[in-house]
């Protein structure tokens, strides 16, 4: 927090986390940058949560990447996937990875699961497809909180992640006009987050340098990591839900089953013995 509670600052260095996503999904450079930005943005939104709450950020657009999804928890865990991981476009006019071109036109959705009967859902049209600008637009127009969002992923030629991170600065309700002017001046000409991290100045240090005059103080620090709650048991439940007839057809035609988690890429294999057991469970659960 800063400026006596009038400004909220969230910072994350996500290099290791995004690198894990790149490795698991085999992402090409442009896909790496896009998903890395989305995961980092989701992680920053997740930092506002508590308990078992979670947030899902989804991009549904017409570009070659297809849909992108990232899910973050209040505990610093985040996971995500992209519809087409094998996307790498020529650099854009600014000689940067063309994330906007790969995403295309579409919409941004934010779903907050706060443990209530129904999750909170909000959406806005994509402004640029560059993710950071789109999240800022969402926060300002859907949640009515003026926000500056900086997200960056520096990708090597081999698609590995050299640096990744993000920063969100929000001017909260009840702020004074002087606070707005000070924040705008502090964030003017903000360097690219990923380049700053690569040069040894992460988003935390960058925020302290730019917003220190507002009395910036960090209320909490959480470790950030890639994590997926998938399990063999969950996929077994999914197979049983197919019903006895479908499982019997699967056993007769293929003799086994293979499922893959979209979020983390973990493969779960079920042999003939497993399928017979699951057929038995499906039979027991079938209505009489």
From TrEMBL:
GO terms for molecular function: protein folding chaperone; unfolded protein binding. CDD domains: Hsp33. InterPro entries: Heat_shock_Hsp33, Heat_shock_Hsp33_C, Heat_shock_Hsp33_N. Pfam families: HSP33. The keyword Disulfide bond applies. It comes from the Bacteria. Disulfide bonds join 228-230, 261-264. Keywords: Chaperone, Cytoplasm, Disulfide bond, Redox-active center, Stress response, Zinc. One of its GO terms (biological process) is protein refolding. One of its GO terms (cellular component) is cytoplasm. It is found in: Cytoplasm. Under oxidizing conditions two disulfide bonds are formed involving the reactive cysteines. Under reducing conditions zinc is bound to the reactive cysteines and the protein is inactive. PANTHER family: 33 KDA CHAPERONIN. Redox regulated molecular chaperone. Protects both thermally unfolding and oxidatively damaged proteins from irreversible aggregation. Plays an important role in the bacterial defense system toward oxidative stress. Belongs to the HSP33 family. This is 33 kDa chaperonin. It comes from Limnochorda pilosa.
């Amino acid at each position: 927090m800063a400026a006596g509670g009038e400004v909220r600052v969230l910072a994350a260095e996500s290099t290791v986390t995004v690198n894990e996503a790149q490795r698991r999904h085999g992402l090409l450079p442009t896909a790496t940058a896009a998903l890395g930005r989305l995961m980092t943005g989701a992680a920053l939104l997740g930092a506002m949560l508590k308990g078992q709450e979670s947030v899902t950020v989804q991009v549904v657009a017409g570009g070659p990447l297809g849909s992108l999804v990232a899910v973050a928890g209040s505990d610093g865990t985040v996971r995500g996937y992209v519809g087409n991981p094998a996307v790498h476009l020529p650099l854009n006019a600014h000689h940067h990875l063309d994330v906007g071109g790969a995403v295309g036109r579409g919409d941004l959705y934010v779903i907050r699961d706060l443990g209530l009967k129904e999750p909170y859902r909000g959406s806005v049209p994509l402004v640029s497809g560059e993710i950071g600008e789109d999240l800022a637009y969402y926060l300002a127009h859907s949640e009515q909180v003026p926000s500056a969002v900086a997200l960056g992923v520096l990708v090597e030629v081999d698609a590995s992640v050299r640096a990744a991170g993000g920063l969100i600065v929000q001017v909260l309700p009840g702020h004074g006009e002087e606070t707005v002017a000070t924040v705008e001046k502090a964030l003017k000409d903000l360097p690219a987050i990923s380049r700053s991290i690569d040069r040894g100045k992460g988003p935390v240090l960058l925020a302290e340098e730019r917003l220190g005059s507002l009395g910036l103080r960090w209320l909490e620090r959480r470790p950030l990591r890639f994590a997926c709650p998938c399990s063999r048991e969950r996929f077994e439940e999914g197979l049983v839900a197919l019903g006895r007839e479908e499982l019997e057809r699967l056993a007769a035609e293929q003799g086994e089953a293979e499922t893959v988690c979209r979020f983390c890429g973990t493969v779960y294999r079920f042999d003939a013995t497993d399928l017979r057991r699951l057929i038995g469970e499906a039979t027991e659960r079938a209505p009489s």
